[in-house]
Amino acid sequence: METAFTDCLHMQTVKQDTAALWLSGLCIVHCIAAPVVFLLAGTGLLTTAFTSEWVHVLLFVPMLVLIGSTVFKSAKRYQYRTPLKLAAIGMLILLASLSVHGPIESVMGILGGSLVFIAHWKNRRFLKAQFHDSALS
Ligand SMILES: [Zn+2]
């Protein structure tokens, strides 16, 4: 039997997974848009701000925190480790992308962001299935 407390905790995790989906989605959009903006607008101030690495550094911290509070929890509590593995590989690729430049940076960003996105999507679906809570869908 589930208590109201674990139900509430579970709902929080689902919400955090949703937030993480938006964050990793934002990274994917940024990685796709950055080269396009660069090609269209050249090397203006706006372009420099948009394409530089600080966007990833800025996204990296909350993404890491959300991985800790969602997919890491699922792996510990339910031994459901697939999202954690995907998220770990995704974050490593994102981290590695900070040290490279040019098209490879975008490719790695899109790949890493997508893996984190899939990880949270799988985790969210798993948690929902665990509790059969229709109010969350
Ligand atoms: Zn990005």
From TrEMBL:
Domain of life: Bacteria
Keyword RNA-binding: no
UniProt GO MF annotations: mercury ion transmembrane transporter activity
Transmembrane segments: 20-42, 54-72, 84-100
Alphabetized UniProt keyword annotations: Membrane, Transmembrane, Transmembrane helix
Pfam families reported in the protein's UniProt record: MerC (PF03203)
Gene Ontology cellular component annotations, sorted alphabetically: membrane
InterPro entries linked to this entry: Mercury-R_MerC
Protein name as it appears in the record: MerC mercury resistance protein
Organism: Aliidiomarina maris
